[in-house]
Structure formats: C-alpha cells, structure tokens
Amino acid sequence: MRALMLASLDGDAAAYRSLLDELGRHLRPYFVRRLTPAFAPHADDLVQETLLAIHTRRMTYDRTRPFTAWLHAVAHHKFVDHVRRQSIRLTVPLEDDAPIFAHDDNADALARHDLDVVLETVPPRTGDLIRRTRLDGASIAEAAAANHMSETAAKVSIHRGMKALVARFAGGPK
Predict the structure, then answer these.
(1) What is the pLDDT of residue 100?
(2) Domain RNA polymerase sigma-70 region, which positions (predicted)?
(3) Measured between alpha carbons, how far is 40 from 146 in angstroms, rounded to an integer?
(4) Of 27, 53, 86, at which residue does a domain stop?
(5) DSSP per residue over 68-110, as a string?
(6) Which of 131, 125, 121, 134 is nearest to 169 (CA)?
(7) What is the count of structural domains for the chain?
(8) 35 is in which domain, residue-wise?
(9) Which burial class, exposed, middle or buried, applies to 91 when counting CB atoms under 10 A from its CB (0-12, 13-18, 19+)?
(10) pLDDT tens-digit profile of 114-129?
(11) Does residue 55 share a domain with residue 7?
C-alpha cells in the first residue's frame, strides 16, 4: 500500500484508484472487528469517512514513515469520532465488578458507630426496637417479644422514636 500511496502522491491516478480499492478492502474488517454486532452495519460508513479523510489529508503523509501507521491513526480517529457520535459507552456487568471494587470494612464500622450514636438519643428500648425492625429486618412481633411488650406498644414506641430522630437530625417537627 505504501508504494501505491507514494505513486499517487506523485500524480499517478491509476495508483490512487488502486490504493482506494485496497484501502476499502483493508478498512472494512478493521472496523467490523472493533464494532459490536449492533453497530457492525456502520462499518461501511466508517470506511467511507476514513477514505474521505485520507483523500483530503493525503498531503500530510510523511513519505519517510510507514504508511500503515498513518492509515491506522486516521482510521482510529474516525472510529473514536463515530463512538462519540453514537454515544456508545462500554459497560461492565455488575457481576464482573468484584475485582474493581473492594469492600471497605472501615466504612461499615463508621456507619455502625454513627447509628449507635444516633440511636443513643432515644430511650434504650426504643433504640433496640428501631434497630431490630429497621436495620436487622425483624418483624414487629419479634422485636416486641424480645422487649417483653405488646406489638401495639412496640409500634407506638418505634413511631415516636423515629419521629424524634427525624426532628433531631432532619430538622422536622418535634
């Protein structure tokens, strides 16, 4: 391809036509490999855009450098422009994120400490009921039985405790 490019830069029209034909055959698989199956039909558009860019910028080619490096740079820029236009974003399935995101035990400890501090502002029994029902997932009946009280009394205590916490920490009514 380099010889054809050099000949076309010297004015050989036949070499230029041959170069464009060969580039078309080379670029299509280049783009198809880089596109997802949903965007594979865009490969021909990318080939045309790249050929047009090569045509308009062919005088910027440095004759002392490899032609394919210059060609792939132009093709890569056209591919990046296409990805940006299509707003294609790479995604990582959530089940594949384990190596990316480490579990921060320190954050859990800080959150537990903050919850303990907040729940200390209500009566101990109310704090225990809120912790069991809202944080640990226990039912009202289970929390009431653990605190030796009726379900109705537990509901009232939880409601009043939550209302007090909201008033204190969220700026709501007291």
Answers:
(1) 53
(2) 31-87
(3) 63
(4) 86
(5) HHHHHHHHHHHHHHHHHHHT------GGG-TTTS---HHHHHH
(6) 121
(7) 2
(8) 2-86
(9) exposed
(10) 888 888 889 999 999 9
(11) yes
